[in-house]
Amino acid sequence: MIEFDRVTKRYADGSPAVADVSFTVPSHKTVVLVGSSGSGKTTLLRMVNRMVDPTSGRVLIDDVDVTTMDPVRLRRSIGYVLQSGGLLPHRTVVENIAIVPRLNGATRPDARERALTMLDTVGLDRDLASRFPAQLSGGQQQRVGVARALASDPNILLMDEPFGAVDPIVRRSLQHELRELQRTLGKTILFVTHDIDEALALADEIIIVAAHGVIAQRGTPTEILTRPANAFVAEFVGVDRPERRLRLADAAGVEVVTDASGRPIGTLER
Amino acid sequence: MKWLNQNVGSLLELTVAHLALAVPAILLSLVIAVPIGWTAQRLRWARDPALALVGVLYAIPSLPLFVLVPVVLGIGIRSSANAIIVLTVYATAIMVRSAADAFSSVPLEARMSATAIGYSTWHRFWSVDLPLAIPVMLAGLRVVVVSTVSLVTVGSVIGIPSLGTLFTDGFQRGIVAEVAAGLIVTVLIALVLDGMCILAGRALTPWARAAEAR
């Protein structure tokens, strides 16, 4: 469990990046922080592994204040996926994945074996092992990033807009795969995105962040969609957008779901 | 050709002397410039003053420096140490800027990601910052190699033996072949060392070509 307890972070000039934020990420759940850029969501994420330390307030992992932990060791115990994978360009795929097990003290052959197993886990061909990141597609780089984050089997996974740099079709399949992985792995995931659809697709719980990390609403995807707390959330979620306002139509005996403008989306199963 | 046939021995001797001055200076400048460049990149406020300072060093005329260094340090004016120190000053002046640029060229994302997955600062320097700085660093090193090999010859004016001795001697005695030999071998040394830099760079940065090939 990750707990944010009245956390504030001020920049050097005194202006707040996040102000008095409290929430928890329950164990084995996926919590998605969603907000526009500059809302402080990435700052919040980075407080978990001490890339950023709060000016006041506490961040606790299983009731232990992270500021009492050694930052380097803390980071090695937490999986972290960055935008476009955050791979080291001068290391091959297998070396990139093996880094964290190596940092945690695994022998070279063990770390390598572990890395190859992780390639299988994220659905990549072992033939890619000796390539450099620049020789991979964006989607493949993302998968390697996820493999690296999972390589030491951490309890916690931090994901900072991990699928932001790939095209929408690849993004959707990566989201699907992450959901499948999470079903078997049950990690505690804190995920940051500006894409509300991504939040709806992945989250057990969504936290909508307005400016300065102020929480506009938190709830399950269904709650957010059906009962937006205020105009800001309604606007952010786009409850009035045609693709959110679905209708039923009859097409020669088949029930078709359409959006508000009548474009077909799918068929209804009862 | 007649001069060459009679002087192969001394030509070889002076070539070795030339290298014995140039190579230590080049390597020393690298060892000095890398930590300064890395610090300049980490401490933004230190960058501009540090670069300004080394820029001033480069503006000092070389001949006075060859005379001044022995006086300040109390070493022989014709000693190898004097030549190596002076050459190192100029090489470092160029190399610090290259090193600072090289560390700035390391993608922020790679540095962030290395920190995020648990590299300590020291470990990150050796495993991430330094290897990724090599391409830009190498471009600077090549300039240093060529300029240092050329600058060594100035020392011959005050009597430090190198291929430059062939210029001074040949000029005084009016032997064109001797001056030409000194010039050609100096340029050859510069080209060979430059080529070695290129080869070393290729061997050290296989990922850079992988990225280009794509």
Automatic annotation (TrEMBL), chain A:
Q: Outline the extent of the ABC transporter domain.
A: 2-237
The record, for InterPro entries, names:
AAA+_ATPase, ABC_transporter-like_ATP-bd, ABC_transporter-like_CS, P-loop_NTPase
Q: What is this protein called?
A: ABC-type quaternary amine transporter
- The yes or no answer to whether the keyword Metal-binding is present is no
Q: Which GO terms describe its molecular function?
A: ABC-type quaternary ammonium compound transporting activity; ATP binding; ATP hydrolysis activity
Taxonomy, superkingdom = Bacteria
Which SMART domains does this entry report, sorted A to Z?
AAA
Alphabetized Gene3D superfamilies for the sequence: P-loop containing nucleotide triphosphate hydrolases (3.40.50.300)
Give the keywords, sorted. ATP-binding, Nucleotide-binding, Transport
- Recorded E.C. number(s)? 7.6.2.9
Family assignment from sequence similarity: Belongs to the ABC transporter superfamily.
Q: What class of enzyme is it?
A: translocase
From TrEMBL, chain B:
Protein's name in the database: ABC transporter permease subunit
Q: List this protein's GO terms for biological process.
A: glycine betaine transport; transmembrane transport
Tell me the membrane topology, using the record's own terms: Multi-pass membrane protein
Keywords on record = Membrane, Transmembrane, Transmembrane helix, Transport
What InterPro entries does this protein's entry cite? ABC_transp_perm/SBD, MetI-like, MetI-like_sf
Write out the GO cellular component annotations: plasma membrane
Its family remark reads: Belongs to the binding-protein-dependent transport system permease family.
